[in-house]
Amino acid sequence: MQIIVEEAIEAYQGQRLLEATNAAYAALQNDPQAWLELLEERAEWDVTLADGLEGL
């Protein structure tokens, strides 16, 4: 019984994390300046994805 309760709690916590993450992204998308800044930062990081990995 304790294992079932622990698994249910973990699943609930995971669901809450996803809901909070979705809410945060929705709020970010509702702020055009903040969303643009995020997209710009992502573009900067995308340049580093293949650094030094061409030969692998």
At a glance:
The protein has 56 residues and is mainly alpha-helical.
Walkthrough of the structure:
With 56 residues, the protein is mainly α. It has two helices and no strands. The N and C termini lie far apart (48 Å).
The total of helices stands at 2
What is the mean predicted local confidence, pLDDT?
90
Poorly predicted ranges: none
What does the overall shape look like? flat
Q: How many strands, what sense, and barrel or not for the largest sheet?
A: none
Class inferred from helices and paired strands: mainly alpha
Strand coverage percent? under 5%
How many β-strand stretches?
Answer: 0
What level of helicity do the residues show?
Answer: over 70%
Order of helices and strands: HH
Q: Termini separation (Å)?
A: 48 Å
Radius of gyration: 19 Å
List keywords for this structure.
single chain, 56 residues, mainly alpha, 2 helices, flat
Topology (SSEs and partners):
Blueprint: H1 2-29, H2 32-46
